[in-house]
Amino acid sequence: MMNNLFTYVLAMKENIAGLSVLEETRHDNRVEDDGHIIENSELVVRFENGVILRKQTEVDQTEPVNDEICAECWITYEVLSQPEHVTITPNRKSFTNQCQENFWLKINQTQTSTHHH
To answer: Could you give the CA distance from residue 36 to residue 39 in angstroms, rounded to a whole number?
Structure first.
């Protein structure tokens, strides 16, 4: 569990025992380029077990956002630092929209919950 990137991504969203978030640093950046508005955000999260994870999100705000469809955006999770006894795999994961991330979380949650029975 502690070696699975999924666990940390999930821990950013909900409480997982032993993986509480000690510190979050967020940087937002808005770039206007030729009529396109690109929003970049970077979230660096430090967990109590020493793992540091970075989430980068890039959204093109020019496109009208429709809740019915998954707007294209780039989401990348990257392990910046991990304690010696932990090897997180994968140490980097990218998605091209929020639905993809949700789906990945859902699949992994199903897999991890079946391991316990």
So the answer is: 10
